[in-house]
């Protein structure tokens, strides 16, 4: 039986921050359940591609339709070894869902690995799990992290910050470091021959 991981997603989640971690973790043999409140397995969510093109903030373009592979109502947080929270616009409204916040709190209370990238930190702030913690995120989320009692880590866009069970990064360019740190917390040991 493979190790199960949970991904909390929703419409206009950042395309790369959903698809790349899901596919990479599946490639390593993890069972990755991607869920969205009020949606069931087989239904789709829309993604958005956020890019850094020299403007004052990121640009947004249509992404792909992503087919969910698990039903939100069937999630039992204790069945999962870790949690992935991608960014994009989804976290700003997912954080209004009490069940999403309870799921998020479970992983911190149980000290299970949590990987949050970009605006994924918005779920962490709303769940009240960042007090006394250090967390990286998209810079615009820095004030929220501070107001939630956390310490915002202003690191390079391709960097990763690990604080106990929390792996965080500013955006998708950090995927290599971000995913490596997350699977290390999950207990994976990858060797190349």
CATH topology (level 3) name? Rossmann fold
Rg over CA atoms? 15 Å
Question: Into which percent range does the helicity of residues fall?
Answer: 25-40%
How many domains? The number is: 1
Which structural class matches the secondary elements? alpha/beta
Strand order of the largest sheet: 3-1-6-7-11-10
Polypeptide structure, described:
The protein is α/β, with parallel strands linked by helices and 193 residues long. The protein has a single domain (4-185), classed as Rossmann fold (3-Layer(aba) Sandwich), CATH 3.40.50.880. Helix content is 28%, strand content 25%. The chain is built from six helices and eleven strands. The strands form three sheets. Strands 3-1-6-7-11-10 form a six-stranded mixed β-sheet, with helices on both faces. A three-stranded mixed β-sheet has the order 2-4-5, covered by helices on one side. Strand 8 (134-135), helix 5 (142-147) and strand 9 form a beta-alpha-beta unit. The relative contact order is 0.17.
Topology:
Blueprint: E1 4-8, E2 13-14, H1 15-27, E3 31-35, E4 44-51, E5 59-67, E6 82-85, H2 90-94, H3 98-109, E7 114-117, H4 121-127, E8 134-135, H5 142-147, E9 151-152, E10 161-163, E11 166-169, H6 175-185
Parallel strand pairs: 1-3, 1-6, 2-4, 6-7, 7-11, 8-9
Antiparallel strand pairs: 4-5, 10-11
